[in-house]
Amino acid sequence: MDNLKQQVDRRRTFAIISHPDAGKTTITEQLLLQGGAIRKAGTVKAKKSGNFATSDWMEIEKQRGISVTSSVLQFDYDGKHVNILDTPGHEDFSEDTYRTLMAVDAAVMVIDSAKGIEPQTKKLFKVVKQRGIPIFTFINKLDRDGREPLDLITELEELLNIEGYPMNWPIGMGKGLRGLYDIGEHHIELYRPEEGQDRFLKLDSDGELEGNHPLKEESIYQQTMEDVSLLLEAGNQFDEEKVLAGQQTPVFFGSALTNFGVESFLNQFLQYAPAPESSEVNDGEKTIAASDETFSGFVFKIQANMNPAHRDRIAFVRIKSGEFHKGMDITLARTGQKIRLNNATEFMSSEREQVETSVAGDIVGLYDTGNFQIGDSIYSGKAKIEYPKLPEFTPELFMQVTSKNVMKQKSFHKGMKQLVQEGAVQLYRNYQTNEYILGAVGQLQFEVFSYRMKNEYNSEVVMTPIGSRTARWIKPEQLDPSMSSSRNLLVKDRFDQPLFLFENDFAMRWFHDKYPDVELEAGFNEKEV
C-alpha cells in the first residue's frame, strides 16, 4: 500500500457509548447515512415496519429493540476512513463494551437531554477516562423538551470531572426548537428550514446572523446570542491539547432521530479526533508506532454465527501497527503458532466484504476455526509483540446448566464452547461432579445465552439459579478439596484454575478465619472501575 503513514493518518476509530435509550444506535445510523454507507436510517424500535437498525444485526436485538453485542461499521467520509464500534448500552453487557473501548482511539458519549448523566454513562465514562483517550459528547433528543443546556454542561463537569466546551448552542428546544448556533463551524443550522431556504446560515465577523433573516426578530434568538456571548467570555476556552488528553470534552447538541446537528458533529469530530498512535507492548518494554511496517494487533471480540447459514466464527482484530494483507503469515503470541491469514473481512454490521489490505486503525474480521481467544496478540516478523491483557469481569450471578435433550449433547457442547469463547458468558465446572456452571455480570446475559443456544445450535438448555456469589481464586498448591462446603462451592474455570464461589461475605470471612494462611485472589471487578 502506498505511503503507509499517510493511510494510517486517514483512520478515525471510535466507540459510541451511552446509557440505554439515550439514542446511541440511532446516531450510529445517522453517521452511516452521512457517510453514504446506507440509504435510509432505521430506528431501533421500528419493529412493525421491519426497518431495523443496521448495527443491530442479531435476531434477538431486533426483537427486543436493544443492542446486546458490539457492532463494527466502516465507511469513508471527507478523506477519512471511519471505523465506528457501536457498543451495547445495557449494563449486563458491560464486559463486551469495556473490551471494545480498549480497541478505539476516541469515544463519543451520547446523553439524553431530558435525563442528563445516567448511571451506565458514568460507569463507561470512567473506563474511557482511565485510558486517557479523547471524549466527544453529543447531547441528544433536542427535538423534545429537556433540561437547560447550561445545567447539562454543569452536570457533565461536576459528575464526570471533565471540562466541557460547547461547540454549538440550541436555539430553543422541543416544540420551540428553531436551530443551532454553531460556534465551531461559525454558522446557524436551522431545524426546519422553509422550502427553498438554506439550512445553514452564515454569521458575520461579530457572530451575528447576516442580513435581515426573520429569526433575528425572535426573542429566542436574542436569548441565544446572550448565552453564547456569556459562554465565550466566561466559559472554558477550547483547548485541542486538553481534548486529545481526555481532559476537555467538546459538547454538541442535536437530534439523532431527525438528523439535526449530526453532519456538523461528524465534520468537527473528524477534524479533532486523533489518528492511530504508538502503543506500549511487551509489558511496557517496547513502544511500536502505528506506522511501523511490522504488522501487529489484538483480538478484542469473537463472534459466532454472524451468518447462521455458514455457522462461521469471526475474531475481531484491531490493527495496531503496520499493514494487513490477505495471505500473510502471522504468529499468535500466546502459543507461538504460525497462522496464514487467507480469509479476512471488513464490516457493515452483518454485511461483510473480503478485505485485501488494511492498515493500523482498521478493524478486520478473521475467520477462525478455534485458534484465537479474546485478548490474543498477533504479529508478523520475528520479534514478539504482545499487547496488554483485556479486562475479564468476575461474574456475580451463577447458573447450573444442562442440556434439555440428552440426545443432543454434541450440539450442546459445541454451542457452550463457542459462546464461552466469545465471552457471552463465563464457564466453570464443579470440582467434584464436573457439572457446568455459568457465570454472568447480569441476568440478561443468561437470557441471550439460552436464546442463542436454542436458535443457533438447536440445543435447548435448562438453567437452575444458584444465586449471587462472590468468586475468589485459590492457588492450586494451597487447595484441599475438603475446604469446600455448601457455603463455598469449589469449581474450576475454563483454564482449570480452582476457585471458590462464596455464598456471601460472611461465608468468605468464616473461610478466612478457618484458613488464615490461604490466599484468595479476586478477579477484575466491574464495580472497582
TrEMBL record:
Localization terms from the record: Cytoplasm
- Protein keywords: Cytoplasm, GTP-binding, Nucleotide-binding, Protein biosynthesis
UniProt binding sites for GTP: 18-25, 86-90, 140-143
Report if keyword Plastid is assigned: no
Residue limits of the Tr-type G domain?
Answer: 9-277
Under Gene3D superfamilies, the record lists:
P-loop containing nucleotide triphosphate hydrolases, Peptide chain release factor 3, domain III, Translation factors
Q: Which InterPro entries match?
A: EF-G-like_DII, EFG_III/V, G_TR_CS, P-loop_NTPase, PrfC, RF3_C, RF3_dom_3_sf, RF3_GTP-bd
| Cytoplasm recorded as keyword | yes
Question: Per the record, a Pfam family?
Answer: EF-G_D2
- CDD domains recorded for this chain? RF3 (cd04169)
Specify where it is mainly localized. cytoplasm
State its role: Increases the formation of ribosomal termination complexes and stimulates activities of RF-1 and RF-2. It binds guanine nucleotides and has strong preference for UGA stop codons. It may interact directly with the ribosome. The stimulation of RF-1 and RF-2 is significantly reduced by GTP and GDP, but not by GMP.
Family recorded in the similarity comment: Belongs to the TRAFAC class translation factor GTPase superfamily. Classic translation factor GTPase family. PrfC subfamily.
Write down what this protein is called. Peptide chain release factor 3
Organism, by scientific name, is: Holzapfeliella saturejae
